[in-house]
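dumping this here before i forget
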Amino acid sequence: MNILKHMESIFVVTLGIAAAAAFTTSDTQAARNTQAAMASDVPVVVISAKRMTAQEKLQSLNEERRLATNPANPRSSI
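structure:
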């Protein structure tokens, strides 16, 4: 009968243990995934270019429009 009186505390302690186990397991799994990603050869793309000025953007846009409307110069399909 004494166990029935303390059922709530047993449940809370069990829940705490389960939460702690889940937390530590997820931390170690995340660490493994991070180490695996760092160890593999992940391609890194570095783009170093100057930004276009407003005039260059307008010129590029006009060029694209001219090429899109010119039937003598069809776009290539990729």
